[in-house]
Amino acid sequence: MSILKNIFAKKENPIHTIADFWHWFQENEQTFFKVVQGRDAIEEQFFDRLAPKLQELREGVYFLAGMMNDEVAELIFTPDGMVKNVAFIEDLVQAAPQLPNWKFTALKPVADINRFNIRMNNYEFSKEKINFYAIEHPQYPDEVDLVLVYDDFVESDKSVIANGIYIFLDNFLGELNAITAIDSLKVIGPDQAEGELISILKLKDYLVWREKEFIEKYEGTRYNTDNDAYVGLEATLENGMPLIAMINRTLLDWDAKASHPWIVRVEIAFKANHNGFPDEATYQLLNQFEDELIEILPDDQGYLNIGRETVDGNRDIFFSCKDFREPARVVDRMKQQYKQDFAVNYAIYKDKYWQSFERYKG
């Protein structure tokens, strides 16, 4: 009888859209709530069911769950530091249904530092054990480069310790602030410190001050690319494949680069000929994709097209942006629009002084 039951069990519909996901969740929410409330078999009966559905919907979306009070469970969605998924998670929560026993939260919120300690692999991460200092770069004055000093640092466990520090910061600052307010971060032990140690309790005030300073300097900064000069560059890879780039050389000399700190790299894989370049029809379609992207993300709204690079069956298109949310949404839509023509992927990262493009200035 159990075999027949498995054969004729209801098959769940695939998850393609945010609406699909919430429809599935609503069908199961009372069962899930009772599991979280009871705290029994939560991994098997909730986590192991939710995780594959989120994976179907979007790669790189993770979650935390727990009880807010006796009657309400909270489900927190997190990109775990992946910038390109922040906007998607915010949109996911915005579309969530109103359910009396659930609260849905986008990104890890700020936690009370006096009420949490993080323990991982026999290490404890708390306000008593973590200090910091900042490194100043005269050539990059707006860079927020931090060194976090952990009292119990052990070199052989540095990756575990760094992960614990990142989790601590997500909870202390809030995940969004941890992603956006810090440009670079290094974790060391007290014996390696070269600056005066500052209590981690003062980090929020320091970041608020740096952000205020940054906004005052760059608020309203826009750039018009109409009269810029683009240059064509050619090179040969180690495997012998030729590379051609078209780069806005004028833009790379701009003295307010830090005002557009988010780099978007759109990666398009196409069927190439023997030298790694597209045929004429594919070339025109690639240009159509790029032109459409530039039209949707115009320079006067804070999206600057730095240029493109074509090599070995791949075209990369580069933008520098004031914000990362809208580019992520736009490229997600265009991935679907062109999915019959290309394999489109993208990355978003913070590079306040566009150092990843120095190779084009030689």
Beta-sheet strand percentage? 15-25%
List the domain count as a whole number.
3
Radius of gyration: 24 Å
Count of DSSP helices?
A: 9
What is the approximate shape? globular
CATH architecture tag of the largest domain = 2-Layer Sandwich
Helix content: 25-40%
Spans where pLDDT lies below 50 across 5 or more residues? 1-9
Number of strands: 15
From the 3D structure, determine the CATH topology of the largest domain: Alpha-Beta Plaits
Compute the separation of the termini in Å.
73 Å
CATH class of the largest domain: Alpha Beta
Q: pLDDT average, as an integer?
A: 95
Q: Could you walk me through the main structural features you see in this protein, from its secondary elements to its overall organization?
A:
The protein is of the alpha+beta class and 362 residues long. It folds into three domains: 18-106, no CATH class; 118-218, no CATH class; 230-360, Alpha-Beta Plaits. The protein is 33% helix and 25% strand. It contains nine helices and 15 strands. It has helices spanning 2-7, 18-38, 42-57, 86-94, 158-173, 175-180, 203-218, 280-296, 325-337; strands at residues 62-67, 73-78, 102-106, 118-120, 123-125, 130-135, 145-150, 184-188, 198-199, 230-236, 242-248, 262-269, 303-311, 314-321, 343-350. The strands form four sheets. The protein has a six-stranded antiparallel sheet with strand order 10-11-13-14-12-15, covered by helices on one side. It has a four-stranded mixed sheet with strand order 8-7-6-9, with helices on one face. A hairpin with a 2-residue loop joins strand 4 (118-120) and strand 5. Helix 2 (18-38) packs antiparallel against helix 3 (42-57). The longest helix is centred in the N-terminal third of the chain and has 21 residues, at 18-38. It is globular, with a radius of gyration of 24 Å. The termini are far apart. 25% of the residues are buried.
